[in-house]
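Hello forum,

I keep getting stuck at the same step: I have a sequence, I want structure tokens, and every attempt I make locally crashes halfway through. Rather than fight my setup again tonight, could one of you with a working pipeline run this one for me? It's a single chain of 310 residues.
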Amino acid sequence: MATSNIRLIGFPGTGLLPLFVGIDKGLFEERGVTVDLERTPSSMYQAQKLVAGEFDMACSAVDNFIAYQEGAGEIELDRDPDLFVFMGSTQIELSFVVADGINSFEDLKGKTLAMDALATGFAFVLYRMLDNAGLKPDDYELVSVGATPHRWESVQKGEHAGTLLIEPFTGQARAGGFTILESSLQTFENYPGQMFGAMRGWANENRPAMISFIRGYLDALDWTLDPANKAEAATILGTNMPQMPEKAVVPSLEKLLSPKTGLVPMGIVDMDGLKTILEVRSQYAPQGKQLTDAEKYLDLSFYEEAVAGR
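Reply #2:
Ran it on my machine without issues. Output:
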């Protein structure tokens, strides 16, 4: 059987564990694909490289796919993106972690907050938190810093007063005595984390590779979620994220194995969560465009074919 190669770019974080598992244990190859995984330094880099054809797929906050498809991304692209989502990855808990000396939302007035991007991704989660706390946009300043490791480092150094973190960085912050002002679990009843997306043209031209990738990922996801594999999964996670303190591996894995804050069983796309994404984007995006049609950004035919033939 011929083997296709998939170039995939994702954000550094524990949610990549099924990809680590699939690559390390050869589960993708058993389905007829190999996967080259790169971790992105920012959503802007990810979108630019994906649309330029340097990567075939991305695992990203679903709002990133929507934003760039709507022409509302953080940077201009040199071609029409033609992006869509084809499979779910994670639910998420985003924790608003603040620097030493910040004890309340009121203390954030006049301070800068670190984000990946200011009008895409998880930025709107922070806007809603700040809005609910009664802060106005001119009370603070958001600064684009990049992916989670860079933002977390900037808060540790005191360069910015706070940022949104995911595991394992939230656990590191908590262990270091940093204050968590709010969790997204308090802010939203249902908010998805990351999903898989690609360019429609590439996907249609490479449908067999798409199907094989989805099947390989679901094999790896099943393995990861099997309680019998928990100890080995922790080892794979620690090996592939060597920057994570050893004591943070198991707590981070516990969060990841919970469907409320981690991996989505069967990679199902969270339609209710997708509607929440559209709602907050409609409210907070600078363009002010009302978005209501979640189906516009989806093509689940690849997923459905892959599942039917497993």
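Residues 4-92+191-308 form a domain with the D-Maltodextrin-Binding Protein; domain 2 fold (CATH 3.40.190.10). If your local run keeps crashing, start a new thread with the error log.
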